[in-house]
Design brief:
Number of helices: 4
Radius of gyration: 14 Å
Largest sheet: 7 strands, antiparallel
Helix content: 25-40%
Number of strands: 7
Number of domains: 1
Structural class: alpha+beta
Order of helices and strands: EHHHEEEEEEH
Shape: globular
Length: 125
């Protein structure tokens, strides 16, 4: 079970007063941009999920990249970041308490990349 309050979109959090949250979003968007620059064959060969830990200042944050096929047959690529925090947290769930943010891309069957719509990203936020 999870409880998510408010938005998990970087565009909504980019003006946050929390510098760690702004940096988390910056890193998520950079990862999405790097994914978008990969050849289609590389995107399709990504693992279903991969995770990394990094530090923002002295705090450990996690990033997970997901690749899954949607009901329509498109490929959804998601970069999710989690910042543990007790300061006005918006996420309470298996990952902990803090901020869960996600952005992504959709690779359609024709090979076109577009930004993933919110309805596909909801379960990752």
């Amino acid at each position: 079970m999870r409880i998510a309050i408010g938005s998990g979109k970087c565009s909504d959090l980019s003006r946050s007063r929390n510098p760690k949250l702004r940096e988390l979003c910056s890193r998520i968007l950079s990862r999405v941009e790097r994914l978008g620059a990969l050849p289609l064959s590389a995107l399709m060969s990504l693992p279903e999920s991969s995770s990394e830990l990094e530090r923002i200042n002295s705090q450990v944050v996690s990033f997970t990249t997901y690749r899954e096929v949607t009901e329509s047959g498109d490929c959804l690529l998601v970069v999710q970041g989690f910042l543990p925090s007790w300061q006005f947290p918006r996420y309470f769930g298996p990952a902990g308490i803090g901020f869960m943010v996600a952005e992504g891309l959709v690779l359609n069957q024709v090979g076109t990349l577009t930004l993933a719509p919110d309805d596909l990203l909801w379960e990752f936020r």
